[in-house]
Amino acid sequence: MSETLRILFVVVLVAGNALFVAAEYALVTARRARLEERARSGSRSARVALDLMDEPVRFISTVQVGITVFSILLGAIGEPLVSDLFGGSVPRWVSFLVAFLTLTYLSVVLGELVPKAVALERAERLAIFLAVPLQWLGRILHPLVWVLDKSASAVARLLGVPPARAGLSAHTEEDIRHLVAEAEDVGAIETAEEEMVYKVFDFADKEADEVMVSRPQVVALSVDLPTQEALAAVIDSPFTRYPVFRGSIDDVLGILHVRDLFKALYDRGLENVVLEELVRPAYVVPETKDLAALLAEFRKTNQHMAIVVDEYGGVAGIVTLEDLLEEIVGEIEDEYDLPDESVERLDESRIRIDGTFPIDDFNEEFKQELPQEDFHTVAGFVFGQLGRAPEEGDEIVWNGLRFNVVDVDGQRIGRLQVDFLEPEDEPEPVEAE
Question: Is residue 321 part of a domain?
């Protein structure tokens, strides 16, 4: 074989090795969504690429056979070629070492690193370009690949390693969280978008009692109210739907929509409107209803409010469609929303809050870790720490926080003062009486 022909063979073998490496990295790193979009647009090559991605064991085996064969041929043809350049003027081991280093350099740089870099940068484009040739090569080499795969599986079983399974590999929630975090780090998505994705995952893990408007905060109407008083109450409140009860809020008759009330007033006049006749059936859910299922039922039944009941059948609170959406997109305010007065900042290390302030909101806003397993509000947490009915002036210290009961309403804590203590200011913990 002439020297020119052998040089040509070396170039072809290095280029072939580069194509196999590029095909492997392109098909492994290509984004399915983009390939599926191309496939829906009629690209046969994109469809073939997706088929190969669905059987990674087979296509990787084909690629590895190609890389191995080309590497062996490169050594067999390239080593004598480089050795002949010395014409016997140096010892055999020197010419062999030079040939080995030269071919290794060409193979690693041109046959591995360069195609890898190109494939990572243009994964989808290369996957589409190389998919069909790789598919045909896979069919040609199928008998050999089958034998090699079976041999590898047998050895793996002897070592106690289960053989790799073909098919799609699904990303776990943790995987997706890491991918989203990486995308935010490099600026591919905004921080707000990252937080929204996290909230979607957290949303599915929450239950109705974690986001509901608790019973003391529910604005409800007695069915026995005169129509004029009910109208005044509706006008003074910023809401559009109100639970209507008889006697006690635990006996909810249904939901009053202000649109129904105003329409009845317009059609019949104030004196002829009976509140009970305007009430729509209430949608009732348990405290343990998960939010994903509740949102699906809201959409299916066109509901916007649900009455949340505890295990004894008593009303624990209400949850609205807006409450659910706010868990994902954050607070939604309109021109009728009242300013948030639940947090009063007294100074840099001291605040005053409503007892009904949700623990998860407190933890998120002030970067704290109050336990959420047994309590939903800060007042509930303080009540639990006290172990008795609260009184004005009661104080507890917990993990660098001092909670002081500012006022109480019966057995319920109204307002709390919270001091964020410096380590040197934190007193020794004292058990509540």
Answer: yes
Report the CATH number that the domain containing residue 349 is assigned in CATH. 3.30.465.10
Sheet arrangement for strand 241-246: 221-222, 241-246, 248-257
CA dihedral 30, 32, 36, 39 (to 10 degrees): 30
Rounded distance between C-alpha atoms, residue 276 and residue 246, angstroms? 10
| Predicted model pTM | 0.56
Looking at the DSSP bridge assignments, the partners of residue 401 are 398, 420
Task: Work out the pLDDT band at 164, boundaries 50, 70, 90.
Answer: low
| pLDDT score of 423 | 66
Instruction: Assess whether 188 and 75 both reside in one domain.
Output: no
In a domain, 152, yes or no: yes
pLDDT in tens, 345-359: 888 888 998 888 888
What is the longest distance spanned by two Cα atoms in the chain? Answer: 119
What percent of the chain lies above the pLDDT cut of 70? 91
Range of the domain at 380: 343-425
Work out how many domains the chain is built from and give that number: 4
Contact 362, 353 (CB under 8 A): yes
